[in-house]
Amino acid sequence: MKPTSANERIVLLDIVRGIAILGILLVNMTFYSSSLQAIQMQIEQWPGVWDQAVKMLERIFVDGKFMAMFSFLFGYGMMLFKERAEQKGNRFGRLYARRLLALLVFGLIHGILIWFGDILVHYALLGFILLLFHKRRPRTLLIWAIGLLLLIPAVLVATGAPATPKLSPEMIARAQKMIAHDQLVYGSGTFAEIGKQRFGDWVMSFFNQIAFYPQILGLFLLGAYFAKRRVFHDIPAHAGVLRKLCWWGGGFGLITNIAAALLPDQAAFAGAKNLFVLLGVLLGSPLLSLGYIALVALWFKRSSQHSPLSLFAPVGRMAFTNYILQSVVCTLLFYGYGLGWYGKVGPAVGLLLALAVFGVQMVWSRLWFKRFSIGPLEWLWRGFTYWNNPSASATKSAR
């Protein structure tokens, strides 16, 4: 079998990006529609059977997996960007720094003016650290990636995996007041009132996310390692590695996440449950995400010409646009300056709503590329990066 062509390789990465965008929407739907306080303090708001079933399935198969996938692709994408820049005789470091600065601006606009849960600012900041590694050998990238991914779990295990804190009645009462306040502001407030609340939640979310910087950077470096090893340039040559990722990485990730979700909360199981929650979130989720990527790659390679996976490619080609668009659409659905559904949609209905939104994105992305060669926000991003008219140099290849 011949190596994967450049076009096939790009289609595959766009498929994985498109799948990641779906998974991110499934996770973010809870944050669009529910109080950040309730989520962080684990205050149960939807005890119904269907809602609990959906939450369980998302906890096992979705939460943390697709953002890890997106982080991996970010690192992979940097190496592809470098490869193309150097082929054209451009200075990679300068171009990529401008690209990250533009991403930072977009992220600030997104987080402060649209939705507080933005991830782009963190990607831009960590991207400057990633930039320091672009000349490193694959082995160095792999060592750093593994070290960073193991750092937080090792520290927590060494110091004793923290138990889930038990909330006192007073703490629960205070949390309920904050949840009611969020419901009032986000559900029926004006744009200005929501903007004030959103900024506070963005600050809180920003500092919470910093705790996961080693994990995110580790995934960036792992993606860069895979790109330097050209794993998706020649899938048949790396099929053995990909199969091992499916079985061992995906298997470990699945087992730890199932155990973390299904072990009872009784005191007798507290130690085991806390350990599996720790392993599932910090190690199992990244490994399961790698299992997903490997599975998609192997599946796509078997029937790349007519694979149903290709339906995800248009969404992935404009992943940046679709990520921001999800926030715009969902905040209009849930916030007071839109339909005001905030706090009224549980996990089960939220799942159906997420699938509906993504279905529309699949259709509109496909229609968009019948006329244009690049997504609208990708067009702006490219313009900031190259300081030119993006349409003059846009091609139908993905970033």
From TrEMBL:
Span-the-membrane segments of this chain are: 15-39, 60-81, 101-134, 141-161, 206-225, 245-263, 275-300, 320-339, 345-364
Top-level taxon: Bacteria
The record's listing under Pfam families reads: DUF418 (PF04235)
The UniProt keywords, alphabetically, are:
Membrane, Transmembrane, Transmembrane helix
Q: Matching InterPro entries, A to Z? A: Bact_Transport_Assoc, DUF418
Ranges for domain DUF418 come to: 227-387
**Entry-linked PANTHER family:** INNER MEMBRANE PROTEIN
Q: What is this protein called?
A: DUF418 domain-containing protein
What organism is listed for this UniProt entry?
Paenibacillus oleatilyticus
